Please model this.
Amino acid sequence: MDLEEKISRLRTTSMKEARAEGNAIIDKYREALQKVLEDHKEEALRQSETRIKAETISAKLQLNQTMARSQLELKRMQGKVQQELKDKIFEEAAILVQDFMKTDDYKDYLIKCIRKAVAFAGDDIVVIYINPSDEELLPALETAAGAELTVSKEDFTGGIRAVIRSRNVLIDDSFKTALRNEYDKFFFSGGGSIA
Model:
């Protein structure tokens, strides 16, 4: 074999080896780059999942806060409307009481209350007060109930008040107190609650 053939063969072999080494190096770089790409994809996916979880938690928190504010506002509005309705109901009740005080049934009611107070006092001295607006009924009530009455200086809307000093007892059958007690314990029940 002559020198040219040897050089040609050497060249071919060297080229094959160089290509093989080059291809191996390229394959290693390709594998390394592929690994870097896969790692990058996994990290990006992890970061996006973490961000999605954080954004989801933040959105739920904001939603809960908004719902809580809305519920408080609704409860406040409901309370305001209920208070307005309660006031209106008791304004109407006061008008009905005034209308009742113009009837004969009211006079009968006063006589019944006076007799009850006298019976409760027994032998003790009782001072029975009627409302200033009922002053014109004084003679008729005293006659019908058989008791001495006093016109109160304080307007208690109607009804009577009686005092038994020896026992420190106040009998309060006044409409003012009855209405105030009912107002204080009145509340709206039932219906839908805001939860």
